From TrEMBL:
UniProt biased composition (Low complexity): 428-438
Protein name: NPH3 domain-containing protein
Domain BTB: 29-96
Pfam families: BTB, NPH3
Length: 565
């Protein structure tokens, strides 16, 4: 336990009977302070030099009257005596048991730094922050002492600081715990040295995750509830450990709880304890075993708890009823001819069956959503959609996949254009009977597919985001679908003509027809995109039509080569 000594003079306070305290000194006392039933015969100078409140009280009294009364000081005569000894410079020892009373009494007496440097309030605050709040068990002891000093301890934030200190330590990684704690659970064989694989070298023992649960059982119910709520809100302690803590507290505070029957104690107090424990149960089903919940239910029935408490316990038990044993389900009947409560067990079974049906229904709905052809991951974000589309190789798509891509309203426009481009390439290649020539496309269109950006007057990364973000409308997709079908028909007719007649002129005519239709499709896409305001200023400055004109002017030989082929 941490402690702090103040002052250096020997303690010269003397007692005369039960209700008189005085200082053994040659100087006669010149003030009498009444604290409750105790009279303190003291001297004004050391008291008034450190207490602003005593200065006010003395100034308000008559000069002939040397007696003042302070009956409402927190901590009573014991706390006042500590403050008085500090004023005299006598040795005072502060520890976890008396520091809160001394702090509240010092606040009451207004022993501030403005009165004298290094006054009592300052020294106690240093002790609390540097020692008490850093100690696990001292924080718990101090928190227990705050109960009798309300509302002073609450207003001075001693209660909240203790709770935060305890909750922070309980939420720490167990491997970082270096302070002493109470733990009476059964140890593992390896911890006792009884492990069959133990080589005789004792390793450093690991701190269990529930190392703190027994120490908190010393707290009163209201403080325990606040500490547990803070621990749970921190989010670093699992529901299973919280369940262990609640089980330990129930075993400590409810006599006979482990047997499922309360043997003695205050009826109303026991019911309040149980209702608080049920209120603290985490929502996840992994907090506490099914057997623990059944014990709570048995005691709740015996203590005649509210229906809401019993319904909550039955709901939790019903969702994990497969873990229960026969002995767990033997609930004693409080009234009637039967020995055991059959009706409660029947309700538990009904909850269990209903929960199973609900889970089955949810599973079927989930499977139905997965199998549904209408779903293209409806909740996927724009960035995720882009990453998935970049992984897709449009060259390897089958004809059916290409048609599906064109019909998909959620695909980015860039992907739709790439699919149409490679489908047109496939049709052109097939129509030329094994030839590899492909029609030239405008630079702005070639920039939309990999490896074809060399003919464009700008790089493919200039307006990548706009091209990815653009999504074809339903009207665009309908037009693309019809014209893609027409493109396929033109490709098919060219194959038949080439195979039957081997007429080079008809093949060239069909190729040019396919090229013109492909260019028409791309022009419609870009015109719709421009109409919807999806092209930036840099995009509109170079439309597909202008690109074709520029390329025709700059490279006239290309047009001639195309017509000759």
């Amino acid at each position: 336990m941490k402690f702090m000594k103040l002052g250096s003079k020997p303690d010269s306070f003397q007692t005369d009977g039960e209700n008189v305290r005085y200082v053994a000194t040659e100087l006669a006392s010149d003030i009498v302070v009444n604290v409750g039933d105790v009279k303190f015969y003291l001297h004004k100078f050391p008291l008034l030099s450190k207490s602003l409140r005593l200065q006010k009280l003395v100034s308000d009294t008559n000069e002939e009257d040397d007696e003042i009364h302070i009956h409402d000081i927190p901590g009573g005569p014991v706390a006042f005596e500590i403050c008085a000894k500090f004023c005299y410079g006598m040795v005072v020892t502060l520890n976890a048991y008396n520091v809160v009373a001394a702090r509240c009494a010092a606040e009451y007496l207004e022993m501030y730094e403005s009165i004298e440097k290094g006054n009592l309030i300052y020294k106690i605050e240093v002790f609390l922050n540097s020692s008490i709040f850093r100690s696990w068990k001292d924080s718990i002891i101090v928190l227990q002492t705050t109960k009798s000093l309300l509302p002073w301890s609450e207003e001075l934030k001693i209660v909240s600081h203790c709770i935060e200190s305890i909750a922070t330590k309980a939420s720490m990684d167990p491997s970082k715990v270096e302070w002493s704690y109470t733990y009476n659970r059964k140890k593992l064989p390896s911890e006792n040295g009884n492990d069959s694989h133990w080589n005789g070298v004792r390793k450093q023992l690991m701190v269990p995750k529930d190392w703190w649960v027994e120490d908190l059982c010393d707290l009163q119910l209201d403080l325990y509830k606040r500490v547990m709520s803070t621990i749970m809100s921190n989010g670093n302690v699992s529901g299973a450990v919280v369940g262990e803590a609640l089980s330990a507290y129930a075993s400590r505070r409810l006599p006979g709880f482990n047997k499922g029957v309360i043997q003695s104690g205050d009826f109303m107090k026991n019911r309040l304890v149980l209702e608080t424990i049920v209120c603290l149960l985490p929502p996840d089903m992994g907090s506490g075993s099914c057997g623990f919940s059944l014990k709570l239910l048995k005691v709740a029935i015996q203590l005649e708890c509210d229906e809401s408490v019993r319904s909550e316990l039955m709901r939790r038990i019903g969702q994990r009823l497969e873990e229960a044993t026969v002995a767990d389900l033997l609930i004693c009947a409080t009234a009637g001819e039967t020995t055991y409560d059959v009706e409660t067990v029947q309700k538990l079974l009904e909850v269990f069956v209903a929960h199973g049906q609900e889970q089955q229904s949810l599973l079927e709905d989930e499977l139905q959503e997965i199998r549904s052809p209408k779903m293209e991951h409806p909740g996927i974000s724009k960035s995720e959609r882009k990453r998935i589309c970049r992984l897709m190789d449009c060259r390897k798509l089958s004809a059916e996949a290409c048609m599906h891509a064109v019909q998909n309203e959620r695909l980015p426009l860039r992907v739709v254009v790439q699919v149409l481009f490679f489908e047109q390439m496939r049709a052109s290649t097939t129509s030329s009977s094994g030839g590899t020539s492909t029609p030239d496309l405008p630079g702005s269109i070639r920039a939309l597919h990999p490896g074809e950006s060399h003919g464009s007057s700008r790089s493919t990364t200039t307006n990548t985001e706009e091209e990815w973000d653009a999504v074809a409308t339903a009207e665009d997709i309908k037009v693309l679908k019809g014209e893609l079908a027409a493109l396929k028909l033109s490709g098919g007719s060219s194959q038949s003509s080439d195979r039957n007649s081997n007429n080079a002129e008809k093949v060239a005519a069909n190729k040019m027809k396919g090229f013109l239709m492909s260019k028409k499709i791309f022009s419609k896409i870009w015109s719709n995109k421009e109409k919807n305001g999806e092209i930036t200023s840099s995009d509109t400055s170079e439309s597909p039509a202008s690109t074709v004109v520029e390329e025709t002017k700059s490279t006239p030989s290309r047009s001639r080569r195309q017509s000759v082929s």
